[in-house]
Amino acid sequence: MAKKIGCKKWTQAPKDGTNFELITKLSDLGAPLSKKTLLSFYMNVTKSSSPTPNTERNPYYEFHIFYRTDVNNGWKGLTQFFSSGDVDVEKSNYFHLTKFVIRNVRNMQLRIFSPRNVGSFEINDFGLEYRARNKRSTATHDED
Q1: Structural domain tally of the chain?
Q2: How many helices and strands, by DSSP H and E, does the chain display?
Q3: What would the pLDDT profile of 1-37 be if each residue is shown by its tens digit?
């Protein structure tokens, strides 16, 4: 007997939710055989609505960034940041830059996770800055 398949239709209608997760593809950063040194992570976030006033325990957005170098490895913490909701403008841009050094990486996968949000937000851009081993130039990998 044939198994019944259910299909769900995607909609652009906004959904209320408090968490968010984005996982990128596993990338060789454009050079599969070369080992890279990761130097920084950046992310640009726009607050799209004005939530009710918050305290430090209840920020209007909170992001935790994880990475792994192989799909069989566990996630490792890269950085985290949050912003309180005490800004009274309709649209506010926030640019977050975290510098670090992670050596001898061939592949990279990112996980951007937000356990709670108040109000809506947009992630405009995010990326990694890295240097290929034995090269002096610095390259930027952007998921756009």
Answers
A1: 1
A2: 0, 8
A3: 677 777 777 676 666 566 789 999 999 988 888 899 9
